[in-house]
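Q: What residues go here?
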């Protein structure tokens, strides 16, 4: 009998009435762990109705009480961090240490959201006109939904719902059907922290569930993280149904390596940023732009032994640095890109297709690390997001050539530069057209009290995610102008400041 993985609605485990679903695998072994059972349309409507009712009560709960719920949730996350990481590692395939790091970065956003009483403070202007005062407030939207990807089953949901709840909204999470269990544990923990039933809900589902949420008249906002084609669809559909939308898409993140860079630091950064989590990160570095032939040759010479020394295996194995891909289907997609790169004329220096898993991992979705050199801007492996353990080296003539390559690429999620020159680093940070920049930092994911988001085809919508941008996204501003005086005469002209 299948182990069904269901939704969490109104504070309770919710067994769906339908039979449609998908298998959840352990990517390291290929073993089927269970079956995600998708919510039916009537159940989605029921969930939204419950969340709508709960939102009116939660919005009228004082911010300090909402913060106290999140404080308790934060403590429970620390207590259960290892358990949550094990669930992530088993369903996603990333190493246990990587999964623990994911949970830690999610907790940071919860900690930031605990400061919501301060973050929601408005502004006040006295006597803007004769006996007239104006103040501003920020109020919750109502019911908001989050649609999250497979690669960060805990962190990306925690980029969204702690901020949304702190601001006074109720939340519906639609996690990836490939990694459904972590979201249910988050639901159990926040309920234990005292979150009222119906304020946080988890809907297991597929693209039909997503489209129903996008079209539902009682959903006020949608947050999404995933690929660019889907992000573009989410934004178009959501806004056409009068919803506020933030849709974070794909990436092709470049690291520029200058001739004066510390090459050992650059290589260490590239190995982790390109091959960590098997390259299944929207902030992975997938293009190394080496400035000058000598820099490129030295970089390549140092990368080759580091790549060949990578330890690949299951998430729970000691010392493992890179695990499997999420599914056999995705593995085939990455394989097709490697073949495309060869056909396009790039030099395949390390061929990940040669890696063979053994023992209990022989049926897992493993692929070794691949390295291409002499990649050009016209190639598909340069233009498109591969989302796998494939690193491309591009050779730039000089700094301006390297900068122009980053700026001309359709994606603008993140980028990095390795250099010892403060002048070059400052110029790069100022002129590059990407939303997140690292200087001698390979994966520049902002801390929780800043905000995460890209430019160009990496973001659809006006707001980045979490941080102060998250507060603005999950609330709307209201300005109140008031007069208290004894003059009751009528005034038929436009009010002025005199």
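A:
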């Amino acid at each position: 009998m299948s182990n069904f993985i269901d939704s969490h609605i109104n504070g309770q485990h919710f067994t769906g009435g339908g039979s449609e679903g998908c298998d959840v695998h352990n990517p390291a072994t290929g073993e089927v762990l269970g079956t995600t059972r998708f919510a039916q349309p009537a159940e989605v409507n029921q969930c939204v109705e419950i969340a709508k009712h709960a939102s009116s009560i939660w919005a009228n709960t004082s911010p300090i009480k909402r913060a106290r719920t999140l404080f308790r949730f934060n403590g429970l996350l620390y207590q259960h961090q290892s358990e949550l990481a094990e669930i992530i590692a088993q369903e996603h395939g990333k190493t246990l240490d990587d999964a623990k790091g994911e949970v830690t970065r999610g907790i940071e956003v919860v900690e930031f959201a605990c400061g919501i009483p301060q973050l929601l403070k408005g502004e006040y202007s006295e006597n803007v006109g004769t006996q007239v005062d104006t103040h501003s407030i920020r109020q919750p939207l109502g019911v908001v939904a989050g649609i999250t990807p497979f690669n960060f089953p805990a962190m990306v949901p925690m980029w969204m719902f702690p901020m949304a709840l702190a601001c006074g909204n109720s939340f519906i999470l639609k996690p990836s059907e490939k990694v459904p269990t972590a979201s249910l544990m988050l639901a159990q923990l926040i309920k234990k922290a005292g979150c009222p039933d119906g304020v946080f809900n988890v809907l297991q589902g597929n693209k039909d569930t997503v489209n129903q949420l996008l079209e539902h008249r009682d959903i006020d906002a949608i947050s999404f993280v995933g690929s660019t084609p889907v992000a573009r669809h989410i934004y178009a559909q959501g806004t056409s149904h009068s919803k506020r939308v933030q849709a974070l898409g794909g990436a092709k993140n470049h690291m520029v390596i200058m001739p004066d860079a510390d090459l050992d630091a650059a290589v260490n950064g590239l190995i982790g940023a390109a091959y960590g989590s098997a390259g299944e990160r929207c902030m992975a570095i997938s293009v190394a732009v080496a400035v000058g032939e000598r820099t490129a040759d030295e970089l390549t010479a140092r990368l080759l032994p580091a790549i060949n020394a990578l330890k690949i295996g299951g998430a729970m194995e000691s010392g493992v640095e890179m695990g499997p891909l999420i599914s056999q289907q995705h593995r085939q997609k990455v394989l097709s890109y490697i073949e495309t790169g060869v056909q396009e004329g790039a030099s395949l220096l390390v061929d990940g297709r040669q890696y063979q898993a053994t023992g209990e991992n022989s049926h897992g979705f493993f692929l070794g690390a691949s390295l291409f050199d002499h990649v050009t801007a016209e190639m598909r492996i340069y233009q498109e997001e591969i989302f796998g353990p494939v690193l491309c080296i591009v050779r730039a003539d000089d700094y301006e050539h390297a900068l122009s390559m980053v700026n001309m690429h359709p994606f603008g999620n993140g980028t990095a530069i390795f250099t010892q020159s403060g002048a070059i680093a400052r110029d790069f940070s100022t002129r590059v057209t990407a939303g997140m920049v690292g200087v001698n930092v390979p994966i520049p994911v902002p801390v929780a009290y800043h905000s995460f988001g890209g430019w160009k085809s990496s973001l659809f919508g006006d707001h980045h995610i979490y941080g102060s941008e998250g507060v603005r996204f999950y609330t709307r501003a209201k300005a109140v102008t008031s007069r208290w005086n004894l003059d009751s005469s009528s005034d038929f002209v436009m009010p002025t400041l005199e």
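A: Context that may help when evaluating the design: DSSP finds 16 helices and 23 strands in the chain. The chain has two domains: 4-249+458-479, 253-439.
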